[in-house]
Write the structure tokens for this entry.
Amino acid sequence: MLASRATVHANHDLTRWVMISVLALVTLLPPPASAGGVPGPQAAVNSAPARHTLITTSRYTLPAILLVRDDDKTVSLPEEVNDGRPVVLNFVFTTCSSICPVMSQVFAQFQQKLGAASEQVHLMSISVDPEEDTPARLREYARKFHAGPGWQHYTGTLEASLAAQRAFNVWRGDKMSHSPVTLLRRAPDQPWVRIDGFVTPDELLQTYRGLSGPSGGETLATR
Amino acid sequence: MNAWRVAATKLLLLAMLATAAHGGTPSAASVGESIYLRGILSSGAPLEGTREAGTTAHAADAACVNCHQRSGLGSREGNLSTPPITGDYLFHEHTHGPAEPVLPYVESMRHREPYTDATLARAIREGVDPTGRQLSYLMPRFTIGDSDMAALIEYLKKLAVHRVPGVTDSVLHFATVFTPDADPAKREGVRTVLEQFFAEKNKFPFGPSPRMWTSDKTAYSKSMYMAKRRWQLHEWQLTGPASSWRAQLDKLLTEEPVFAVLSGVGGSNWAPVHEFCEEQALPCLFPNVEVPVVADRDFYSVYFSKGVLLEAQLIGQSIVGSDHQVAPRLVQQIYRAGDSGEPAAAALAKQLEQHGISVRSESLPPGPAGRGLAAALRAAARSDVIVLWLRPGEIAALGPAPRGSQIVYVSGLMGGLESTPLPAAWRPQTHLAYPFDLPDRRGVRLDYPLGWFKFRHIPVLAQQAQADTYLACSLIADVLNNHMADSASRAYLIEQLQGMLERRIMTGYYPHLALAINQRFASKGGYIAHFSDVPGDRLVADSAWLTP
């Protein structure tokens, strides 16, 4: 119930988007000779960028769900997000071996780059596999990535995790289809900045600094 | 012995093992495997990979298996596609046209010109494919020396899907294992379901219709023999002491090569079968066992749940997370030596002691039901909590109710779930560990299998084990028919199962099932429940679904 209402409210006012594309190296080899002059099937893939991110801004309505934080405390999602600090949020799971380690490493490096200010930014990682990811497992995962005090991991019931994923429009049918998304917000009255794709620590820092600028969400990092 | 000597001895041992196994220098295969699976180079140094802008991959986290999977066939998850990198996919000319393609269809396969050893090494080191295309960000750029690279490439070539034992052009062979200590009624019930399922699968092969496949896949439809093969079941009944099972299993596998072990029934010791499957790289799918093997690094055994070990966690969480008025200080457990309660009691004792709760565990001598029970119960009189790992016959004969302030926990799996014959006087203070969805919530999900049994006059001798067996068969049929094309790789079977399970709606006794790489227990939770006041078998949950 909660979840479907949240999805409807997730209001994608796409105010501005920036495509960061680190394009493929210029073709190093001559294209293969294809028999009879028929273009080879590889022609189409050649132009695919190695990495691209899409930055948009959105307003999301967060359901009043309860999550369990990695210190075993039961907390409310809206209260955790509105704790007075800017928030940087992502979704991971501890047995995910492909994309999550990259996302968590980016959070770790971002936190390091913040230096002394790191505790003034609230990093939140919500599990998309909450039944497997007990608070103890999350603590172990956080330790592995040297998470500092400003970075918490969250689990809860399957329903709560789903509701959170739906509220931020990241639910893609199951945890296996989960894709890299990073969400930032300076303050509760500001829109969320959403980065789809693999962001680097430097880009994340730039985007974060853009948030904190005088015009808030209007200053977005570009490249 | 000092640390240096320990390390030196270990190294020496390793070197000797490697030499012994391959009669010379460590084989390329073992070096390649260690890079691929564990991210360790031949020097013992960790594998290192980097990405643009400073994220790195290190040691086990850098290992190819994390993304390309154990089968080497990659995966397709959402919009993330990790290509197959077994030799056949890397080096073969991919014909693209009306002709029947050489290679089985894999969702994430690429169409590009074939690699050579040199362009492959370049791809792994610099992230550039043979056409000059830069590989995407997620794929690290690895630092690997020439001889290690050669070994890794050798390993990838060997990973190619060759003929797999137990798979012929027309038949898929499965085994099911019954240990001698398996409950006879359970074994009979499970066997009947398996035989019926196989008979019907062969009578009405329900392969994917070619129309189900989009145009790009239809080119491969001819190679989708997975769905079309007949299934053959081999029943492996073990005999004698557990120490002799391994030899029996090895012999059976040699005589009757099978693609996978499906279902089966164990008693309190399944470890020899589990280890056999791991060592033979043989999928061992959803056996009906109360005490599965919990080993973090294993891959080929997949269970519905942790059984009594999950019950121990549920009971532990309930005792520690005390909604009880007075925090319990002394817990008394009773189990029969050699039965499934023994490892469960050990696990629970360990958990409670970490929380400063004293645990006394009374082991009843093996033998007829009831022996030693009355004395054990008398000894439990002074404890705050009694935990009973007992069978129905003993539960029925528990005698006078315990002191009013004592809390009692009973293993539902061992006691008979909602049919646990708990004496009326014990009911008010007794809680049942229940590692399934509650009866009144799982109704719809069980209608189909129970109807299936009824229509075929299959006697219901052990409903939960039989329903799990039906579920296991239908899951594997689903994976083979809809998720595997013709890649008859045992590892790929496990990987595809891990990927598809979460979307299943028909999940029998379980509210939902899910797996992932490095997960082997599909259902993670359960209830602590009690019998409602009305006489009968109605259970009421003490709290929400717990995932300890």
Confidence is low (pLDDT under 50) at residues 1-48, 213-223 of chain A. The domain at 51-222 of chain A is CATH 3.40.30.10 (Glutaredoxin). The radius of gyration of chain A is 19 Å. Chain A has one domain: 51-222.
